[in-house]
Amino acid sequence: MVPVIPQPKRITQKAGRVLPGRIERNEGFAAVTAFEDYRARLGLAQGAAPIHCLRDESLPAGAYRLDVGEAVTLSAPDETGMHHALATLMQLTATAGKDGFAAVAIEDAADYPYRGLMIDTARIFHPLENLLSCVDLCWLYKLSHLHIHFTDDQSYTLPSEVFPKLPTPGKSYTKEEIASLAAYAQSRGVRIMPEIDVPGHCRSFSQAYPEIFTSGGIGHIIAFTPRVFTAFEALFGELAALFPEADRIHIGGDEADIAAWLQSEECRDYAAVCGVPVDGDERLSAERIYATFVKKLSDIVLSLGKTPVCWEGFGKEVNYLVPRTTEVFSWELFYQTTPELTAGGYPLINGSWMPNYIVYPRHEKPVEELFNWSPRRFQATHPGSPYREEPYLMPRYDRLLGGELLSWGDHGVNAPDPAAHLAGEFASIAQRLPATAEGAWNQEKPINFAEFEQTRAALAYLNEAIRQ
After folding, report:
1. φ and ψ at 312, to 5 degrees?
2. Are 369 and 351 in contact (CB under 8 A)?
3. SS3 of 439, please?
4. Residue 195 and residue 282 in one domain
5. Do residue 56 and residue 158 come from a single domain?
6. Residue 201 region, left (φ>0) first, then alpha (ψ -120 to 50), else beta?
7. Range of 105's domain?
8. pTM summary value
9. pLDDT digit string (tens) for 148-157?
10. Which of 252, 338, 395, 441 maximizes the CB count within 10 A of its CB?
């Protein structure tokens, strides 16, 4: 075992100790800039051993190798792998004494490509600095994505030039702030996955532009009309331009009052134009419209060169309408269970309620439960889910992409002291994220919980120390 989270898969202990010094050789990696920035923030001592950052394209994408000899040699095939190597080196150095850390050779790579953290900025607004600190945590623990829930009933926190009345005054980011966030994440090898949550959780849309996004008798759910999809072509196009490095865009899709569409003649007429049957089975009719809504948004996102992602929110009866190019978060295991989604062939991300959800300060699972989680373990809280009492343990499934820790702001909406609430939320995330990172990196954990806790305690001070 070495004091590194996630724990590397292949470790060879060597004789001697080493304290890394200057980066004396760098074969074109921009990742070294982030490392030097963090090293300066932490005030880490530098020794005599030079650091060499070498490009080795024989390694798999995102993999890295660290070897201590006369120099500390880091090898990776790409920027992502070098970020991983440098994060490992920083953890080793930060927990070492003045004479450095025990010499070691490490070779490592993630088992899952998607390893994420979700932040909810719509229910409680997070200043830009908070989001940058979340990027820092993602870099430290080798997470691939920071998923940001930018919109909900409470606010629309993105800037918008195409729909300037959408951003919530005082609770939205400027275009310049988003550019700073995107650039900062890119410099840390972290992908931002922005989310605009539709067709439910959309009061901000209906209040700002009722003439576009609503229809008679449907309340605040986004309407199913041609003008809506024309608007979303512009809105998601703007979003893709705000986050040019994003590989995914999350389109939401959860907890929508889809039956309301049937109360609108306009929505029913457009369903007919789209070839969607609306018949005596109202539940199934609404599901068909919903699945077509998801497909239309997915097609828009694909046309922008991004992968569409949605929440599990559609029933298995309409799987034939939702394309397999759409990645699905299995979270509630109620609208459709994980086995049904795998039978449908969807690429999946584990976002299950248990134990992955934080709703600070009322819902936080113990760190040990998160350590015992893996992307193959799914458990719900919905009373209608068959996996409420016992989790579903997924057999091998090649389209399982990984999982994430999700922090929701439901109890921060009316927080009397928002700054104190955000500080508590960050501490809760920082305490639990290492366990999520361990499970999302290592399909089979190479250490037990007691060993993990020892390492987590040694690294805990970094969670605050690396922040700007």
Report:
1. -60, 115
2. no
3. helix
4. yes
5. no
6. left
7. 10-109
8. 0.97
9. 999 999 999 9
10. 338
Does some domain include residue 345?
A: yes
Are residues 110 and 436 in contact, defined by beta-carbon separation less than 8 angstroms?
no
71 falls in which pLDDT band (50, 70, 90)? very high
Q: What is the pLDDT of residue 98?
A: 84
Tell me how far apart the alpha carbons of residues 432 and 436 are, in angstroms, rounded to a whole number: 7
Tell which of 72, 93, 109 closes a domain.
109
pLDDT at 118 exceeding the cut of 90: yes
Residue for token digits 């997470």? Answer: 143
What is the number of structural domains in the chain? Answer: 2
Is 3 among the domain residues?
Answer: no
- Is 80 exceeded by the pLDDT of residue 468? no
Name the CA radius of gyration of the chain, rounded: 23
Phi, psi for 87 (deg, rounded to 5): -65, -40
193 and 334 share one domain:
yes
Percent of the chain with pLDDT over 70: 100
Q: Which of these, 321, 320, 318, lies nearest to 336 by C-alpha position?
A: 318
Same domain as 261, residue 335: yes
The torsion angles phi and psi of 179, rounded to 5 degrees, stand at -65, -40
Q: Tokens 């992409």 belong to which residue?
A: 401
Q: Which residues pair with 307 in a beta bridge?
A: 248
Residues 191, 271: one domain? yes
Quote the pLDDT of residue 99: 87
**Residue 416: which CATH number?**
3.20.20.80
